[in-house]
Prior knowledge:
Layout: H1 7-10, E1 14-18, E2 21-26, H2 30-39, E3 42-45, E4 49-55, H3 59-64, E5 79-85, E6 91-99, E7 104-109, H4 110-122, E8 130-133, E9 139-144, H5 148-155, E10 166-171, E11 174-180, E12 188-193, H6 198-207, E13 211-212, H7 215-224, H8 259-268, E14 273-280, E15 289-292, E16 295-305, E17 311-318, E18 326-328, E19 331-336
Parallel strand pairs: 3-13
Antiparallel strand pairs: 1-2, 3-9, 4-7, 4-8, 5-6, 6-7, 9-12, 10-11, 11-12, 14-17, 14-19, 15-16, 15-18, 16-17, 18-19
Helix pairs in contact: 2-7
Keywords: Transferase, Transit peptide
Domain GCVT N-terminal: 10-252
Protein name: Glycine cleavage T protein, aminomethyl transferase
Amino acid sequence: MRNSLLQEKTAPARMGEYHGAHAAAVYTDVAREFDALRTGAAVYEATWRAKIVATGEDRVRWLNGMITNNVRDLAVSRGVYSFVLNAQGRIQGDLIAFQRGDYILLETDESQAESLTALFDRFIIMDDVEIANVSEKLASIGVKGPKAAEVLREAGFPADLKALDVVDATWNGVGISVACGASEQFPEFEIWFAPEHTVAVWDALVSAGAQPVGYEALELHRIATGIPAFGQDIRERDLPQETAQSHALHFSKGCYVGQEIVERIHSRGNVHRGFTGFSLSQLVNSGTKLVRDGKEVGEITSVAELPSKKIIALGYVRREAATSELVAGDATAKVHPLPFEF
């Protein structure tokens, strides 16, 4: 398990495990940290974001046949979000692929890195491709919130990026890269650099006005903004179109593992159930089944009680039940469009 490089210096109130990595759970107060994500700028050490590099002359062609999105036509310094499927079209993982010129950088959660690397290795047969996990060589600090770009500029980092852009720069003599997240509505950036510069980067961002946050506040924000997490909301039994993540799919790029199932669903026009938000009358556990008229019609996958005391959830529901009031354990549940208002 990857460990924090800041634990002794920043003295978070509590540590824990998040997406397969040792990370700060909370620094001061979850409500205060959530507010920074909602209205200001938050900074966090992204120990759970693993980096995998694909090199070799066949890397673009090979990877294009492995994931659901198009890397063949991806411009240098651009990224795409994508699923990795099995032959039955079930989701085995998710990642962002960044075209870096002479290599492709794959970013995923630490909890997925080992299984995805092993899966990729099995599919390299006669291809000139090498896969390497470089997470220990590349630290990552995230800045998130409506004032994230303002804080980056104040600290001397580039911030004029579009969604899924990545730019290389020199900051105080240190080589860094800044990547922009996928959402324009909820700005997020990651700074990548050699691990020995972690403290300097962190201190600069905090001095520029960023509030340190732990993964408990980040998890509340993830659920409120309607972003599914692999292993929690996206499971290996799920099909791509059920997850409502259409930006992960490309329908004209050519063959890839699982394409036949994805195309069959696409031509049919819909799936029987879909990913959505729910408002709840009280807290329930993730995994709680949704019931209508005594019949199971869905499932809760993530639950959060916001500092406002509003209880929200993510999960799946059958299309024909989406307009009904549902039962979830001892709670009532109503479908709510994503993202939530918070």
